[in-house]
Amino acid sequence: MFYIYFIYSDNYNKYYIGFTQNIEKRLAQHNSNDNKHSFTAKLKPWRLVANFAVGDSKQDAMKVERFIKKQKSKQFNLKIIHSSKNKAFIDKLINDILLK
After folding, report:
1. Number of compact structural domains in the chain
2. Are the beta carbons of 65 and 18 closer than 8 angstroms?
3. Per-position b or e across 6-44, b if 16+ CB within 10 A of its CB
4. What is the pLDDT of residue 34?
5. CATH code, domain carrying 7
6. Residue 30: domain span
7. Residues 15, 7: contact at Cβ < 8 Å?
8. How much is the pLDDT for 91?
9. How far apart are CA 7 and CA 60, in angstroms?
10. pLDDT profile of the chain (100 residues), mean per 10
11. 50-83 burial code (b ≥16 CB/10 A, e <16)
């Protein structure tokens, strides 16, 4: 199963969106010192603020992630974060993105 996740840096008031099969492991990677040149390395610590399942397809997860990032809208991201536990909202969002 692939998931979309949103992490937040309290220190820098920044959000990051990604996809993964293992949220806990991916969050640990964002907070580790292994890759000092990545975007997230400069803004840690990160905390998980939302996540939702996309499905078994890596391509679908990538498409959803790219769509969200291309919106470049904090308001859009916050709407998703606040609605991430609303299955109907998330299912509709995923379906609308994948049908484009």
Report:
1. 1
2. yes
3. bbbbeeeeebbbbbbeebeebbebbeeeeeeeeebbebe
4. 84
5. 3.40.1440
6. 2-98
7. yes
8. 97
9. 20
10. 98 96 96 85 95 98 98 96 96 95
11. bbbebeeeeebbebbbeebeeeeeeeebeebbeb
